[in-house]
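User: Fold this; tokens only.

Assistant: Input:
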Amino acid sequence: MTKAVKNRILYQLNFLKTIGYDYHSTIKFTNKEVSSNSLPNDMEELKNVVENCYLCELSKSRKNVLFGEGNLNASLMLIADEPTASEDELKSFYVGKTGEQLVKMIENVLPLKKEDVYITNLVKCKSSNGINASAYNSCSTYLHKQIELVEPKLIVTFGEKAYQYLCNDNTSFNKIRGQVMHFKEYQVVPTHSVSYLLRNPSSKKEAFYDMLKIKSILELN
């Protein structure tokens, strides 16, 4: 968040506080006011910016900000749609049933350690009813900056929304799942979300073959 945006937010918050409001109404700032060029070229500094971001409605209900973690020089970057309830509660990735399943997918199939990859989400705060385009648009510049700083050889998106919002592509997920797609100059392989696999165990075979393709792409690079 730029100083100008932050100062405008603080000004409105302080004004509302003086007239008796406990919180503020929606402030119509958009991510257009936070350009990639205005963001720091250091992941730790970027994390600090994101953890102090209040650009969208999700900031009102979050418990924690889930920025991202892992190898900053990773060949593989994993992107889900939003933090899970367990991640939001514990401020950590790879927790809960979805986290345990994801670790198995990474370490048993690829095979890599979870510390070898970089993981993040489209949005950094947990939603109450699923993310929408507005929330993603507010957070997208942060995500794009993370991708720019990591420069992965391959991005894997988990779930339909993660792929559609990142790549701005509304093609049927069944048609593109497991295929090599593109975001800017990066290769992207969409696969099922881990939570979907837990609800639909019969789809784990499809995800297994997707992971084998991911493994082969990484070995070629």
